[in-house]
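Archive entry. Fields below.
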Amino acid sequence: MKPALSVIFFTVSSGAGLGLLVWLLIASLMADHIRMDGATFYKGALIAGLLITAGLVSSTLHLANRKNAIYSLARIKTSWLSREGLLAVLLYPLAALHLAALHFGWPQITPITLWTLIATAIAILYCTGMIYGCLRTVPRWNTWMTPTKYVLFGLMSGAVLLPAVLSLRPAEVGPVGRPMVAILLLALGLALYLAYLLKHPRAVHTINDALGFKQGNVRLLDVGHSHGTFLTNEFGFAVAREKARLLRWIAILCGFILPLLLCYFTKWFWAASFIGIAGLLVERWLFFAEAEHVVRLYHGQQRV
Amino acid sequence: MRLGLAIDLDTCVGCHACAVACKEWNGQSLMGGAPDYDAWGKAPGGTWYNRIRSYEIEGDPTYSPHRCGIENHPHPGPPLEGEGAHQPLSKTVNVPMSCMHCEEAHCVTVCPTGASYKRAEDGIVLVDPSRCMGCNYCAWACPYGARELDEDAGVMKKCTLCVDRIYDEQLAIEDRQPACVLACPTHARHFGDFDDPQSKVSLLAESRGKQSMLDDLGYKPTNAYLSLRKPVEIKTELPIRAGLSDKARAFVNRLIQL
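PREDICTED_STRUCTURE:
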């Protein structure tokens, strides 16, 4: 698949923002314990909001006909893209309600708005994953691992951002402790990513399945067009094997191992966040670039 | 009704007449155009509802069951038992592909705007260009490459089964067929209702058998690609010495032909 930068940025940025939102809200339940003051909470909420909004705005950049995007919430019964859009739009009034409840001091409704917000944020991450995971035409995506990756990586990058946000609190409170949630999620994320790379439960389709000639060798003689088509542009993208291997190591190192080491041994949480997000951008680029659509079989590829 | 095409892989000669006729009809159609990009330039491209690709099928014993030509063994020397079936006979198969108007049209279910829809009355899958936001998601969901973005209008385009022809009562009844079907010089394309067991397309699909094209994905395509006919075996050994009955038969034949 063609790795569209707008979609890659959207999934990573919104993912990190939603993850930060979840952990920030959970942290606000034990604000005294982790010594998070109100100003720091609002700063964190602002960062989360910016990341989510930047991602959502970016996601509209790849639309060929943006004026019809208003209809995109119309099919929540069937379309994961519609569900994701609706929940993303719902997130803002929910967040406003929660902030209003905090600001005006309505203790009766804050637990409700807080847990609804957390559930919505995780549901958005899941929907984003299912946009890709539900496609039977891309066997590499059509497994339980895709939504799991989106949820876990979103929560993971948010968990690394949380100690960075906490480090913004006044100096007299003292340094931030070792962020065990972030370390645990980074380790889990690394395990899931390695599992995804090493053993991936996926269907395999051959050119014989595509044309129905079950026996013998099937070869493309003529593709029928003299230059690229929409299909070859969209689905014909191929990444060089050496480049993919290099990028995969960058994704493993920057996305998981370096942030893990930085969180465990140092207090450089901002560096860990930025390196982690850069690593996830590489991981997401590979997610798109390496996914193969079954229409490639009709263009002569033997296996997808 | 479940309207669709039956396409004969045996008679299609890959001339692209269907694709050209499609382009000509739909270029200015009601459902909204199939533009060309850089048509006379270095990188000509465009939106097509129908594309023809040619394949070589080699060594399929179903279609090359008889020994002929030089046998292709992976080892030197005479063939081992059972090897005669696999011989270097190959077939060229031209496969025109347009929208299959699937029963389980996943392109419709993934569409967030509702621009893509499948008509209940005849099963035709269409795109409403006034709702489509051009997110390409339906094209991602289509295994058959039926959907192409119209880059000029920014909306998705696809085969409409010439919905603006087949119901047009101002046309003669024999002209109420998709443009590709009318244009096909070898009559490889047939249009009809697959829900009617007595329709031409149903009878063709029944008698000839149809190719399973990514059926395991579960889209249940409506269009049928008619399988190749089995080749007829031609005996190569000649009757060198005819018996008495052969001589008698030849004698009678000569008498009749006088």
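CURATOR_NOTE: Chain B has seven helices and eleven strands.
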